[in-house]
Structures are given as structure tokens and as C-alpha cells.
Design goal:
The structure is a single chain. With about 325 residues, the protein is α/β, with parallel strands linked by helices. It has two domains: about 160 residues, D-Maltodextrin-Binding Protein, domain 2, CATH 3.40.190; about 120 residues, Periplasmic binding protein-like II (D-Maltodextrin-Binding Protein, domain 2). The protein is about 45% helix and about 15% strand. Strands 2-1-3-10-4-11 form a six-stranded mixed sheet, sandwiched between helices. The protein has a five-stranded mixed sheet with strand order 7-6-8-5-9. Strand 1, helix 2 and strand 2 form a beta-alpha-beta unit. Helix 2 crosses helix 9 and helix 4 packs across helix 11. The longest helix is centred in the first third of the chain and has 31 residues. It is globular.
Amino acid sequence: MPVHSAFSRRHALALAVASVVSMAAPAAWAQDSWPTKPITFVVPQNPGGANDVIARAVAQSLENSLGQPVIVENRAGANGNVGTGQVARSAPDGYTFLVTAQSAHTINPALYSRTGFDPIKDFTPVMQLAVAPYLLVVNPQFPATTFDELVAYAKANPYKVEYASAGNGTLNHLLGEMLKKQKGVEMLHVPYKGAAAAATDVVAGQLPVTFGSFPGVMPFVSSGKLRVLGVASDKPTPLAPEIPVLKDLAVTSWYGLFAPAGTPQPIIDKVYTEISRVLATPAMQERLKTLGAEPVQSNPQSFAASLPAELAHWKKVVDESGAKID
């Protein structure tokens, strides 16, 4: 082989390697130096709810560990679809994250014909932040002091027991549908515009029954304005271990963190590590407890693995309930 030919090939190979290295270097540098500017947590619900408060608590602690501001931006609309879609279309550069509730991410795709996002393809799961148990509560004047008594009363009085929800397709609506199907009872669903309005009317005696998140209804239980019949879980809640467990209605109502699909894995890993450290502190665990939420052990892999089955479960429940929003 001529000397000049061998030299040319070696020269071409060296140039190719240098080109690849030069292209990879900026990306690697960007990941190593991340973050270099403020980070945004998009919350697809209004300010003041449990999801918003959890996002702000985590953001404040994350600022201290990363050395950059973490801004919480509320983008409510269409039961969470507006803000979720915004993050799905954001650049996967590690500066935009979604902090959302389980219902918006796993129920909405079955409830709406168009959400503006794909819950799997458009996101990289980072971790679950916390779970909030749902309670079955009744007005104190209602003639049932246990779950079994409620079921017996509903069977003896078909279509006469009304239950309130936060709206069609919401988690407390679907829990009512699960109760009806699994126990073979006929109850009437009355949708409200929000969980607070539903709980308020049950307190007032306008309707006898509702499901509500722990932070939403437990203050009424503590004051004697509502009676709790059980927690929709497969195990007792550490927040109130004396409440009976309703295993047949077990749901996991989580608050989770997602990044746009394509966000570099080193950034995902760093965010997960930093937030895990924050969630493990006694101060944050106590803060979650005051919100009626429980810290949860989660990582990107386990969170991602749980989503397909959860989406399939809620699609089945929504389809059986007949709830649809177009």
C-alpha cells in the first residue's frame, strides 16, 4: 500500500473521530454544568391545591441544593391538559419539568378524546413525590357507620343514595363507580365543579356520600362534620392508621415529577438524587404530613414501569363508567 494512501486514511479517521468528539463535547459540558439558569416546575392545576403546595415545597429545597431559582408556574385548564401539553412541547434541556397529579396523567387520556399529549411517549418519568390517600366519608346523619352498612343500605335502597364528586371522570367519581360495580349496588352520581364544593354539600346534608382526598376531607372528619368509613388503599395510612382499609377500592393517588421526553439521563439522575435527599429530611416529611400526603420511595425506572398498567386500569374504569369529556 502506498505511504500517501495509508496516511490519508489515518488522517481521515482522525478527522472523523475529532468531529464526533467536538460535537459531543458541548452536550457533555452542558450536562456537567447544569443548571446554569432558572428551572421551571409547571403545575397544571390552580395555586393552593396539594399538588401546587408540594411543588413549591420541593422547589424551595431544590433551589438550595442546585444554586439556581426553581420557579413554579401554574398552567391550569382542561383538568390539567393545558399545562401537561405545554411541558410535552418544551425543549428537553433540563429546564422545564411537570409536577402533576395522578388523575391528570393517567385518567385524562381515557376521559378526553384529545388531551394534547401522550402520557408515555412525550415524557421521561423522574419520580413520584408523594401519595395522598382517598377517604370514603358520609354525613353524620346518614344511617351507616361502617362500609358494610353503607353497602347494605344502598342495596336495600337502589338509586336512592347519591354520591358527590368533583366532576365527571374525576378520581372520586371513578371510585364511586368502582364501588357500584364491585359491590353490586346502584347509587346516583352527582357531579360538582370541584372537590371542595362536593365536600361542602355533603357536610351540609344535601347529599350523603363522597370520596375525598385526605387533605380535602380530614379536617371535616376531625371536627365531626363528616364520618369516615374507610380509606381506599390496600394498607392503613400512616396519617391515620385507625381508619378501616377498603382493599377492594385501593387506588394510589400520587403526585409525580416528569421531564419532556429526550431530557439527558444525567440531568434526570441528578434531579432524582437531589429531590430524594430533600424528601428524606424530617422537615419535608413533616411538611407533607401537614398536607395530608405521605412521602413515597420511587425512582425513574419504577415510576416508568408502573405507568402502562395504571393507564390500562383507568381506561377500563372510565370505559365502564361511561364518563367522557370531548
